[in-house]
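During the first year of the project, the team set up a workflow for recording each protein of interest as an amino acid sequence followed immediately by a discrete structure-token representation. This format lets reviewers and collaborators read both layers of information side by side without switching files. As required by the reporting guidelines, we include two representative entries from the current panel. The first entry is reproduced here exactly as it appears in our internal archive.
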Amino acid sequence: MESGSSVGRSGHQLVVRGREEPDQRLPIADVGQVVIHGYAQITTQALQLCSERGIGVHWLGFGGVPVGSLAPSAPSAQRHLRQFRALSDPAQTLPLARRLVVAKLESQLRYALRSTRGDGERDHAIDAMCERIRDALRRAAHAEAAEELLGHEGTGAAAYFEVLAKLFSDDLGDEFKFDGRNRQPPRDRINAILGYAYGMLYREALQAIIAVGLHPGVGFYHRPRSSAHPLALDVMELFRVPIVDMAVIPAINRKTFDPSDDFQVFPGRVLLSALGRKKVVEVIERRKVDTWRHSVVGYSLSYARMIELEVRLLEKEWMGEGGLFAKFRLR
């Protein structure tokens, strides 16, 4: 994560070299992924070792925006052809997109209701925001086109982030003021944290898709508009609330992040410092190992494993065992 640091190879180990700290040696058998942040580097020899062992290498910009990935796999051409055929058919993609948006909006609504449940009645303004999410949810469930879904998703998300603004402690001060979601570049500290965490979630979804053997470039809801893979963007929508929002917001309220040391503030944009990025990584990595009982399989899985499970359930949609994708919900 440190600018000027590098990842090299020594035999069957990866060696992380910083500018000041001692070298860190990691046996390749203990490495799940390599993530290069900002101006850190990785050598050709290290890339070759990762490729041989099927270990993904991902490059992220300073704001957590995905730059590119090397994710080795040996997928079946027939598997990809089945995916391409299925996800080229609007009769297949629209119901999947509708189910995805409904699942996302339900997660947002349930978290908003749970987080604003106090000893007395809920604030009328929050009730109105939650009702807007409910309305978007009802409309999304009956949408007849992807463009319609996008509109309902956007309406629900706007109301959801208005609720989120009410969840931050008054003790945080003006440095952590939140007026809604913004990105590319983030204009406040909370959006800098959220953006970086969502970038990490995208990478997890991408890794799971490739591990299962699907092609991340062909999705059913998002359309190619950047270097980000549409199917990875689709899958990560299911996990924005449980993996990122439910971990990051309490961490901010616990004053995990220092308004000075953990951020770099520029005119019109705010970025995480190296220390701030490390803290976000720690928060999300801890959340990934938390477990949740998945309603489809009937037993508890870590969130990291759950992402891969959802990708496998997605593939069943065009393999004759549909109806299981995007079914898990927050209680």
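The second entry, processed by the same pipeline in the following quarter, appears below.
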Amino acid sequence: MESITEMQLRTRVEERIHEWGVVVEDTLETETSFIAFGRRGSQPVVLKVIRQRGDEWHSGEILDAFEGRGVVRVYEHVEGAVLLERLSPGHSLAEIALDGGDEEATEILAEVIEKMSPGQSASACVNVQEWARSFERYAASGDDQIPKGLVEGGHRIYSELCGSQTHTRLLHGDLHHYNILFDSERGWLAIDPKGVVGEIEYEIGAALRNPYDRPELFAQSATAERRLKHLASRLNLDFNRALNWTFAQAVLSAIWSVEDGFAVGPRHPCLVLAEAIRPMLEAGG
């Protein structure tokens, strides 16, 4: 991944502020982005400039493809930068789940997915098959932090699911509790998509391994089964396919953690979830 200097980032930020006519009121920096809160005319806006090419580089195009349905509205976008409507108060769905409202949070997640109907395609979007390459890279790397049986099982299931999809569409690709925010006027809305083309059963995998900082809330078979049953019923999903995607994606997410340079031990939340639901796969759901 190509890195950029702070000066280059600042230059890109200033270009976007000028080109899009943003009056900046406050700023926030994260590991991946520079975020400016402000106004364009009388409209409250958020300017987000991505530090370097990666998952969010084309997020503006991905969001724009949903045309505001279930997602934050896009006012302007170029590669690596996007101007968005500002959500208020902007608290995340994670707060509800962490406060004992997991069933309510699961229903809200279903409502957001139901609204997220893309009106156009996104040329920069990959398909779920391309993400499977991480399994192959990990197997060839010699790393042994993730049990071989989980890697092989996750890869096999992921590949089988990729090959048997029937109806595919543009998905958010990273739709979890921290990427769903509340707006007092528009309700719950998704932000920060990765963008991927796949079947709808793929979409719920990220939520099943969140809220990430409290794995005791999700990394157990009873919770996963309850969430999956609710989502499958509400969204008319194939329960077994959603369950298998959840398992395979949990392993894939752990692999991505290794690729990003993080240590992954047996208590890694994604691996705990994968181990918890593996007996459900063997029992046929």
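For the second entry, the following points were noted during internal review. The first strand starts at residue 23 and ends at 29. DSSP finds eleven helices and eleven strands in the chain. Both points are flagged for discussion at the upcoming steering committee meeting.
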